[in-house]
Design a protein that fits this description.
The complex is a heterodimer of chains A (about 375) and B (about 525). Chain A is mainly α and about 375 residues long. Chain A has a domain of about 220 residues. Chain A has 15 helices and no strands. In chain A, helix 4 packs across helix 12 and helix 9 packs across helix 11. The relative contact order of chain A is 0.20. With about 525 residues, chain B is α/β, with parallel strands linked by helices. The chains are: A mainly alpha (about 375), B alpha/beta (about 525).
Chain lengths: ~375, ~525
C-alpha cells in the first residue's frame, strides 16, 4: 500500500488539525459577538509579542514538557498514566522538603538536590499504581486517577497541619531560603547581552526540561530498557516470549513517568512559587496527556506541542484580561485543540491519505 | 431465491459463477490481474495458490468486501453487481471464513438467525429457524444440537454452524476459506462428506486451500493462482500434486524433504512428569514424559489445543509448570527466577514460536530490531549504556541475506513482509544462534510452498549438525515428513510414540483423536 511521506505525517496532519480547531474556535468567538481576528491578534501579541509574553509562554511550556514526557514514556509501554497531576504534587512536596530542610550553598546544588527529591517522590507515587497493575491487574487508568485525589488530600493535610508556618493563615509552606532561588531567564540571558523581561517567571528549569527531553529520547530509542519498553508496549505476548519481565517494565516505565511528572514542580514550586502552595500544578498533569498525544509521544513533538499549549495558556489569559471573552471560552479553545490534534487524528488523516494515494497513482 | 432456482433449472449450461476480467489493485500492488473463471453448478471447484497470490482478494470481491477495478461477475448467467456482503447473500453466495464469525455465548439457533431475523419479535424467528434447521440437518447430514452454546462445541461442529448459517440464508454457492486448517483428520473427513453431500444436492462449492491433498481428494476442477494471475484451470482428474505445486510456485519444488537418516546421540532434554495448570485452573498438560536426543527431530503431532502450545511455552520459559526437566543433566528452573526466555536462550534453547505475529515478532518494529529480539541483551550488541544499533543492523543484514528474506531491507517494518518472509526472519534469528535445542512451533503455518521447502531444509541442516529439534505442528504431513520420531499428544497426554517409517496417517490420526489400540 502506498503511504504518505513522513513529512506529511508529522507536520501536515497536526497543522491541518490545528487549522480546523482554530476555525471552529473562531466560529465560537463570532457566536458570542466578538471579533476572532482581533482575538487572535491579541493572543499572539500577548503570548509572543514581548519577552514578557514569551516568559510566560515558556514558563507554561516548561510544565507541559515535563508532564508531556511523563505521559509519553508510560505510553511507549502502553500504560496510560493519568496520574501526572498527583505525581507532580508529590514532586512539589519533594522539592519543598529538600529546599526547606537542607541548607544549600548555591542554587545549582539546590537544583540538583530538588530534582532528586521531586523525581523520587513522583516516582514513588507512580510506583503504587504500577505495582498494583503489574501484580494484581488493577487498571492503571483508574488507580492513577484515584491517586490524584489522594495526593491532593495528602498535600492538603500536610500544608494545613504540618508544614504551615506558625501564624500563617495560608495553606502553604514557608518561603524557601534565598540560596535555593532559581535564576530566571532574565538573569540567565543578561550576561549574553539579551534583555529578557524581569517579571516573567520562566527560569532555568526550562533547560532541565529540555535536558529531560534529550534523556527520554536516548532512553526510549537508544537503550536496551527503551527497546524492551517499546516491545512490551507493542505486544505483551511477544515480550513474554522474548523473556522481557512485564512486572519490571510496568514498574520501571511508570516510575520514570512519575519522576518526570514530579520534576514539573521544579518549575512551579522551586522556580516560580519559591514555596509549596496547595494547587501549584494547575492541571498541567492533564495537559500533559494532550501534549503527548499531539507530540506522538516523541520528545521533539512533545516540546513543540508544549510551546503551542504554552501559547494557548498565555494568549488565553491575555484574552480574558483585555476582552469580554470569558475565561471559560479559553478552556473551550484549548479543548478544541486537544480534540482535533489528539482525539480526531484519523478524521484528518484518512482524507489526506486518500489524497496522497490519488496523486501518487497519477505520478506512477 | 426461487428466481435463482428456476433460472438455474432453465439454463443448466450457465455457470453458477462466472468472473470475467476481474482486476484489483491496492496502490501499486496488483492483487488480481484480469482473472476469468467459470464454476459450473453442482461442482466443487478448488482454488490454490501461495500466500499473497490473490485468492483472498478474489473471494473478497465475490463476497462484496472489495470492489473490483475492472471486470464483471455473472451469477447463474446473469450479470450481478455485488457492492456489499448483503448483496452477495441475496445473490445466493455464502462464505465460511477461516476464522469463524460466531457469537461464542449464543446458542447455535441464535447464531444462525443473527442478522436474518424475521422481525422484531425473536420467538417467531427462533421457532421458524428451528424447523428450517431440522430440515437442513436431515437433507445434508449436518447434525448439530440447535440449543447448544457455541463455546461448548468442538471446532468441527462450529464449522458446521457456519455452513448452516449460509444454507439458512439460502446460499446456492458456498465459499470455504482454508476450512481444514483447524480440524483433525477425521473432522476433515466428515467435512468432506458434507461437502460431497452438498454437491449431490446441486450446491456449488468453491474451496480455497493450500493443501494439495485436499484438492486431489475432493475437487472436480482446480484453478491455480500465482502473483495475482490465474495461471491454470484444469480438471482435477487430469493433473497431479507435483504439477499443481509447480504451477503455484513457478518452478520445480520438493514436496517431501529429502534427508539422510538421523543419527541420534545422547539425550539432551529429559522431561519427567510435566504438569501445567493454566490461569483458569484447567490442567493443560497432565504429567508427560519425553526424551529429546541430539541429532534428531522429535515431532509432536496433535490437534491444536491439546497441550502442545503449553509444552513449547514451558520449554521457552514463559509458562510455569511442575515436574522436572533436565538439560544435559542439569535441572531447568520451571517456576522461579531463572524461568524466563532470556535464561532459556542463555542455556542454548532457541524457540520459533507458533504464532509469529503475536509472539515471534513485533509487527511495528523494523526487521533489524526484530532480528535481535530476545537476544537484545547480548553483550555483542551493547556499547556502554546504549544499544549498538550499527552492530545490530549489520548482523541483521547478514542473517536476512543468508535466509533469503525478501525484500532484503532491514529498515522495513515486520508487518510489511509477507507471511513466509516474516517466518524466515524468525527462523533466521533462532537458527543462526546455533542453539543446542531448537523448539519449533508451526514452522510453516501460512507460509508459501517455496518458503516451506527452504525452512524445512534449514531445520534438517541444524539436525545434521547434531542439534536437537522439537517440532510441534498441526500439519500431519509436515510432522510425518520432517520427524525422526513422532509423539502424539491428546488432551494433555502423550498417546504414544511412533517411528515415521513404521506408521501412517491413519494410525497417527486415531491417536490424535485419543483412540488407542486397546480401545479400537
Amino acid at each position: 500500500m502506498q503511504k504518505m511521506p513522513v513529512w506529511a505525517d508529522i507536520i501536515l496532519i497536526p497543522l491541518v488539525s490545528l487549522l480546523l480547531a482554530a476555525l471552529l474556535s473562531a466560529a465560537v468567538i463570532v457566536g458570542i459577538g466578538e471579533d476572532p481576528q482581533a482575538a487572535l491578534k491579541l493572543m499572539i501579541s500577548g503570548a509572543l509579542g514581548s519577552t514578557y509574553g514569551w516568559g510566560y509562554t515558556l514558563y507554561y511550556a516548561t510544565n507541559f514538557i515535563f508532564t508531556g514526557l511523563a505521559v509519553s514514556v508510560a505510553f511507549h509501554a502502553k500504560l496510560f498514566n493519568i496520574g501526572g497531576e498527583g505525581q507532580a504534587m508529590l514532586g512539589g512536596l519533594g522539592v519543598a522538603l529538600v529546599a526547606l530542610y537542607i541548607p544549600w550553598p548555591h542554587w545549582s546544588f539546590a537544583l540538583i538536590g530538588c530534582t532528586i527529591g521531586a523525581a523520587l517522590l513522583g516516582a514513588a507515587w507512580a510506583y503504587i499504581p504500577a505495582i498494583l497493575q503489574a501484580k494484581r491487574g488493577s487498571h492503571i487508568v483508574i488507580t492513577t486517577i484515584m491517586f490524584n485525589f489522594i495526593a491532593f488530600a495528602l498535600l492538603n493535610y500536610l500544608l494545613v497541619n504540618v508544614m504551615r508556618p506558625a501564624g500563617s493563615m495560608d495553606p502553604a509552606t514557608a518561603s524557601f531560603p534565598e540560596a535555593t532561588h532559581l535564576p530566571t531567564l532574565h538573569m540567565l540571558l543578561e550576561p549574553l547581552g539579551i534583555k529578557f523581561s524581569k517579571a516573567a517567571p520562566a527560569n532555568v528549569s526550562l533547560v532541565v526540561a529540555l535536558l529531560a527531553a534529550v534523556f527520554v529520547w536516548l532512553l526510549i530509542w537508544r537503550t536496551r530498557l527503551g527497546y524492551e519498553i517499546r516491545a512490551f508496549g507493542h505486544s505483551e505476548s511477544a515480550a513474554r516470549y522474548a523473556g522481557i519481565n512485564p512486572v519490571r517494565i510496568t514498574v520501571i516505565a511508570m516510575m520514570v513517568s512519575g519522576a518526570l511528572a514530579g520534576m514539573m514542580s521544579l518549575n512551579t514550586t522551586m522556580g516560580e512559587g519559591e514555596r509549596l502552595i496547595l494547587n501549584s500544578t494547575e492541571g498541567a498533569g492533564f495537559i500533559g496527556i494532550a501534549v503527548a498525544l499531539m507530540g506522538r509521544s516523541h520528545p521533539v513533538g512533545v516540546v513543540v506541542a508544549s510551546i503551542l499549549f504554552g501559547f494557548l495558556y498565555q494568549g488565553g489569559a491575555e484574552l480574558a484580561l483585555w476582552t469580554s471573552i470569558p475565561r471559560d471560552l479559553i478552556v473551550v479553545i484549548q479543548a478544541l485543540v486537544i480534540l482535533f490534534t489528539g482525539a480526531l487524528d484519523n478524521m484528518v488523516r484518512m482524507p489526506l491519505e486518500r489524497l496522497f494515494l490519488m496523486f501518487g497513482r497519477k505520478e506512477g | 431465491m426461487d428466481n435463482a432456482n428456476t433460472a438455474g433449472r432453465q439454463e443448466t449450461a450457465a455457470p453458477a459463477i462466472e468472473l470475467r476480467g476481474i482486476s484489483k489493485a491496492f496502490g501499486p500492488v496488483q492483487a488480481n490481474k484480469d482473472i476469468s473463471i467459470r464454476v459450473m453448478p453442482g461442482t466443487i471447484h478448488g482454488i490454490i495458490g501461495e500466500n499473497g497470490a490473490g485468492k483472498s482478494t478474489l473471494m473478497s470481491i465475490l463476497f462484496g468486501y472489495y470492489k473490483a477495478d475492472a471486470g464483471e461477475i455473472f451469477i447463474s448467467g446473469q450479470k450481478t453487481q455485488i457492492p456489499d456482503s448483503q448483496a452477495a447473500i441475496a445473490a445466493g453466495i455464502g462464505m465460511v471464513f477461516q476464522h469463524f464469525k460466531l457469537v461464542q455465548n449464543f446458542t447455535v439457533l441464535e447464531n444462525v438467525i443473527l442478522g436474518a431475523e424475521d422481525g422484531a419479535l425473536l420467538n417467531t424467528s427462533l421457532r421458524n429457524a428451528r424447523a428450517t434447521l431440522r430440515q437442513l440437518a436431515q437433507e445434508y447430514e449436518l447434525e448439530v444440537d440447535p440449543d447448544a452454546v457455541i463455546e461448548d462445541l468442538s471446532v468441527g461442529h462450529q464449522q458446521r454452524v457456519e455452513i448452516l448459517k449460509a444454507l439458512y440464508r439460502q446460499a446456492e454457492i458456498l465459499i470455504l476459506d482454508e476450512p481444514t486448517g483447524v480440524l483433525t483428520p477425521s473432522e476433515a473427513d466428515q467435512l468432506f462428506r458434507i461437502l460431497r453431500r452438498l454437491r449431490e444436492e446441486g450446491k456449488t462449492i468453491i474451496l480455497i486451500t493450500h493443501k494439495l491433498r485436499e484438492i486431489m481428494d475432493i475437487t472436480d476442477t482446480v484453478s491455480v493462482m500465482r502473483r495475482g494471475e490465474m495461471t491454470a484451470t484444469v480438471k482435477t482428474s487430469e493433473t497431479n500434486p507435483q504439477e499443481l505445486a509447480e504451477l503455484m510456485v513457478g518452478r520445480k519444488v520438493l514436496l517431501r524433504i529429502e534427508k539422510a537418516p538421523a543419527q541420534p546421540k545422547d539425550v539432551v532434554l529429559e522431561i519427567e512428569n510435566l504438569r501445567v495448570i493454566d490461569d483458569a485452573g484447567v490442567e493443560r498438560i497432565k504429567g508427560i514424559n519425553l526424551n529429546l536426543r541430539a541429532g534428531e527431530v522429535l515431532g509432536i503431532a496433535g490437534v491444536a489445543g491439546n497441550g502442545q502450545s503449553e509444552l513449547l511455552e514451558v520449554l521457552g520459559g514463559y509458562q510455569p509448570a511442575s515436574g522436572k526437566i533436565t538439560m544435559n543433566g542439569q535441572e531447568i528452573d520451571l517456576t522461579g527466577k531463572k524461568s524466563d526466555g532470556q535464561s532459556r536462550r542463555a542455556r542454548g534453547i532457541a524457540h520459533v514460536p507458533e504464532d509469529r505475529q503475536s509472539e515471534g515478532l513485533i509487527m511495528d518494529y523494523t526487521a533489524w530490531e526484530n532480528v535481535v529480539f530476545g537476544y537484545h541483551g547480548d553483550p555483542r550488541f551493547q556499547s556502554g549504556l546504549f544499544m549498538n544499533n550499527a552492530a545490530i543492523k549489520e548482523d541483521a543484514t547478514g542473517k536476512m541475506e543468508r535466509f533469503d528474506v525478501r525484500p532484503p531491507n532491514p529498515r522495513l517494518m515486520a508487518k510489511n513482509f509477507s507471511g513466509g518472509n516474516q517466518q524466515k526472519i524468525v527462523v533466521a534469528r533462532e537458527i543462526e544462534r546455533d542453539p543446542d535445542i531448537l523448539l519449533v512451533g508451526q514452522p510453516t503455518r501460512g507460509v508459501d510452498i517455496g518458503a516451506i521447502e527452504f525452512i524445512h531444509k534449514q531445520i534438517i541442516a541444524l539436525r545434521d549438525r547434531g542439534k536437537a529439534i522439537l517440532l510441534v505442528s498441526v500439519e500431519l504431513d509436515e510432522v510425518l515428513s520432517l520427524s525422526d520420531r513422532i509423539a502424539v499428544m491428546f488432551d494433555g497426554q502423550i498417546m504414544g510414540e511412533r517411528l515415521p517409517q513404521n506408521t501412517d496417517e491413519r494410525e497417527v490420526g486415531l491417536l490424535m483423536a485419543g483412540v488407542t489400540e486397546e480401545a479400537s
